[in-house]
Specification:
18 strands; ten-stranded mixed sheet; Peroxisomal Thiolase, Chain A, domain 1; three-stranded mixed sheet; 35% helix; single chain; alpha+beta; 389 residues; 13 helices
Length: 389
């Protein structure tokens, strides 16, 4: 078989979120707003909260550790961490993650950034690499901490965690099709200048750019590939909050048949099941939605085509498709993911605010105690040391 005939895609995937969360009804009461604004208006029920001992490195390592065995670690040649929550302007978080996971030393480890889009670029790079080296594998991790500040407009759309994906030839879950269509626009809908603690957001403009980007990308994708919505068993969207994708999808479905509308909207709800309980993962939001779809839909089957819409403010948008592999459902981690969410600790608003305000000062040596499998153990000589349990 020639390399260009290889089927390459996601062989394994999983997500990790920190141990703490806030109930959105509690947050609504504390902020003196109708709880329907959060549960219905933006479509969020719970929000993941991270302690100071966790960061994008620990999220990434925890997510990847769930899917990698020793054979995988020996075959991974490329480690990509996509994030917009980088902890260092120079050293890539992927280098630290590579070491924590014990991946073979002769691997390329890099960090990628373009708001919430970068994981999609990471997957494209990983797929290209594996097509050229079909006996090897690549690891792509989307890891982020979404924080906007207490009492801010963006507070109810915060979140934290990571999604890890192992890319290989002849994958067990899905093939990535070579049909991506990407749109780049230089806009300021969401941005964070170097040194600024929290993002700047033009909320209404950002929503409008997202919706317009999906419309433009889909129209061009449909034109170039002769595709229709009826070709897809389901669609998954970048999900900064769960209503966002629906706002973009509904106008495009106006002229579709009732059966197509019903199918895609029903699957959309399956695809936001986990997102409603976790919140915004930035680079990981689309791929958390993909996991949610695969693990909560009762009708998906081998050979089904799923469309993925990736969006990163600033802005880069992309639509591409994947195809499910026979037996894909046997390689998911639904039980583990539901247990992870079930075992979290609900924080009072006071405890959440205290945890939110805790900061790491790299200028002062300090030790920490955290029983999570991967955690920051110490601050020493102006850098973070990590513990692997």
């Amino acid at each position: 078989m020639e390399n260009n005939e290889l089927k390459v895609g996601i062989d394994k995937l999983s997500f990790f979120v920190p141990h703490y969360y806030v109930d959105m009804s509690d947050l609504a009461r504390a902020r003196h707003v109708d709880k329907a604004k959060f549960h219905i208006g933006i479509g969020q029920d719970e929000m993941a909260v991270s302690p100071v001992t966790q960061d994008i490195v620990t999220f990434a390592a925890s997510a990847a550790n769930q899917i990698l065995d020793e054979q995988d670690k020996a075959l991974v040649d490329l480690v990509i961490v996509a994030t917009e929550s980088s902890i260092d302007e120079s050293k890539a978080s992927a280098v630290i993650v590579h070491g924590l996971l014990g991946i073979q030393p002769f691997a390329r480890s890099i960090e990628m950034k373009e708001a919430c889009y970068a994981a999609t670029a990471g997957i494209a790079s990983a797929v290209d690499y594996v097509r050229l080296h079909p006996e090897r594998k690549a690891l792509v991790i989307a890891s982020d901490l979404a924080k906007y500040g207490l009492n801010s407009g963006g507070e109810p759309t915060q979140g934290a965690g990571a999604v890890a994906m192992l890319i290989s030839s002849n994958p067990k879950i899905l093939f990535v099709n070579d049909d991506a269509l990407t749109l780049t626009q230089d806009v300021y809908d969401f941005w964070r200048p170097t040194g600024q603690t929290y993002p700047s957001v033009d909320g209404q403009f950002s929503n409008a750019v997202y919706i317009e980007s999906f419309s433009r990308v889909w129209d061009e994708y449909a034109k170039r590939t002769a595709s229709q919505f009826s070709d897809f068993a389901a669609l998954a969207f970048h999900t900064p909050y769960t209503k966002m994708g629906k706002k973009a999808l509904l106008p495009k479905l106006e002229n579709e048949t009732e059966s197509v509308k019903t199918r895609l909207l029903t699957q959309f709800e399956r695809a936001i099941t986990y997102n409603r309980r976790i919140g915004n993962l930035y680079t990981g939001s689309l791929y958390l939605s993909l996991i949610s779809l695969l693990e909560n839909s009762e009708t998906l089957k081998a050979g089904d085509k799923i469309g993925l819409f990736s969006y990163g403010s600033g802005a880069v948008a992309e639509f591409y498709s994947v195809e499910l592999v026979s037996g894909f459902d046997q390689h998911l981690k639904k039980n583990e993911h539901e247990l992870l969410l079930h075992q979290r600790e609900k924080l009072s608003i006071r405890a959440y605010e205290k945890m939110f305000e805790e900061k790491i000062d790299l200028n002062h040596n300090e030790t920490f105690s955290d029983e999570t499998p991967y955690a920051i153990s110490e601050i020493k000589a102006n850098h973070r040391l990590y513990r692997q349990k």
